Please model this.
Amino acid sequence: MIRKSPTILVVEDDVENRAAMVKVLQGAGYDTKETDNGQAGLDSILDSNVDILVTDLRLPVMDGVELLKRAKAAAHDIEVILITGHGTVELAVEAIKEGAYDFITKPVKKAQLLHAVEKAAEKQYLSRENRDLRSQLGQNNTRRMIYASPEMRHIARMVEQVAPSTATVLITGESGTGKEVVADAIHMASPRRLKPLIKVSCAALPETLLEAELFGYEKGAFTGANARKEGRFELANGGTLFLDEIGEVPPAIQVKLLRVLQDGKFERLGGTRTIDSDVRIITATNKDLQQEVAEKRFREDLYYRLNVVNIRIPSLRERKDDVQLLAMHFLKLYAEKNSKAIEGFSEDAMLALTTYEWPGNVRELENAIERAVVFTAAKTVPLSVLPQGVSEFAGSRHSLTFKVGTPLRELERKAIEITLQHTRGDKNLAARMLGVATRTIYRHLERQESDQEDGAISEIVGDTNS
Model:
């Protein structure tokens, strides 16, 4: 999915305030539109493409809340940021329930406005990307890249860039992170996608068999070689050869691989005829190959040949934003395989999934979801069917120790901060976990930002009420 800069509509009846906000947004590289009343703002949304609406609450013709409702009805994925005076914070919080993304109180700061717009644009992009991914969940290809995190979006962009080339790619990362899936994505996005993608697990074969598998052999090359056999390099001709666990390749075979990479030529075992190789090489490992080179277990020249492009796949604990989407993907996959009508996860089950550390990465998550599907008899996966180590995270809370006499505000601040970390910024979920209203979370964040304000950020909007 190609990311474009969002178009922002500013609706504000105060000419100076509106001009100031538009100037700041344009200075940050955003395309902007502007108008001075709610009805004109709605007309602009209906007539043209608007991604983010920044609107004052009090407007002529149609107020900001009514504009919010109609804008969301006309364009479901539009994000709305409300500008409010100090006397209308309660109204702004209520507007959050109507679908507003955020609100800013006057006087608006430059950094505050840009931060709100940036986060709204990020949310909108993720929502659209996730919607596109979910629309593909019914396809037969179960080896697609499924992601929502910025880390994996970066990987996806690297795949797009490297796929059309012939460069060798070294994919690194912990076991179970999805290195093979990334290799699949590179091949399928390359000009070689109509040719074979041949995979070899270098750790699964002893040295003698690995050499024969890769390069093939002639009849009589060794005991039991009763006929000529083509190797994986020949089978992958014109396509891609994926060598998984490349760090396990013995030194003797490393020499032959180096020759293929340098000259594009090899011979079958027991053969004398040189065979040309037209193969794109992708390798993967969970080992630190630089350390292997330093300890003389892996050839340095081969390492540099393989490491033309390096793609490191982050662990699942480094990209927790992917867990929910991956869990839904595996749920749909295994529910269909087991002919079960399971639609989702209970709230505490999803909380456990998104807070567990997943040392086994995506592979462990997939296995956990497959197990859960087997033991689920209802339409929703309950916490009780998740593996014990995962389910223990559902009700986990941080233990806090405070001195006697600690102010109530400090207790509230610490509880909210830790809960927001626990929910990865999900304010609604944090409010439910703490048993407070969502407006309490927003008030805390507003106070926090006000406390951190050092006066260096210039004000761009006056403190006049609309």
